[in-house]
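Build the 3D complex.
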Amino acid sequence: MPDDPRPVAARRVVTIWLSLAAAAAGITMLFMGMRAVMDIGGVCASGASPFPISRPCPTGAPLLVIGGIWLGIIGAVAYVFLSLGAGIPSLAGLLWPALFLALGWNFLEYAFAPPVGTGPVWGWLIPGVLFVLMGGVPLWFVIQGWRDGSSPVTARALFTPPGVRTITRVLRPRTDRIAALEALDAAYQAGALDAEAYERAKRKLEGSS
Amino acid sequence: MNRRAWILLQVSAVAAGVWAALWLARVVSG
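Done.
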């Protein structure tokens, strides 16, 4: 793999590092906060409420969950833009799988070994399976992309669904051929080609489908 | 910076973020 042709400014390197650290911290905070809430059965309330709170939130859990969500969103958005913009080998494609597999793990673990009562808890098992699928399927695509050799996650690879890539691959040669025929026709009209050369080139283009 | 250096740098960022969050979780849960 050749070195990156475009040098990245030191300041950009620092902001990329900080934004990725923030995204990772956000996901981990959400993970830990979710476990703290699930430890007491999965629901809690805190703050000023007109209703009596029967199950207060574990200490620190609201900060971990709400803070984790915000830190994760801000960090992830900044990291995706900064890293893809710099053209470096980015881990952006792993953020989504990391979030959903981490939370899915919590759901599955607590579904089979709930802190209250006995498992399996269907209300946790179903979201667990869903979250693992939502994280696992994109992860599979990311790994496939690495195997194909397009290893640094590019903006195009990240935001183009697989189906669209196939469609553009099928359509592009066709539109290229039409453009070439038009150019050839224009050259003939302008008198740059004689009739024989024009016919020969046209037959050659039409035959190359 | 080459590819390996970029990956290592970013893995260190993930490790630092996870460590900081675990530390925070321990501190705030008292």
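Chain B touches chain A at residues 1-3, 6-7, 9-10, 12-18, 20-22, 24-25, 27-30 (CB under 8 Å).
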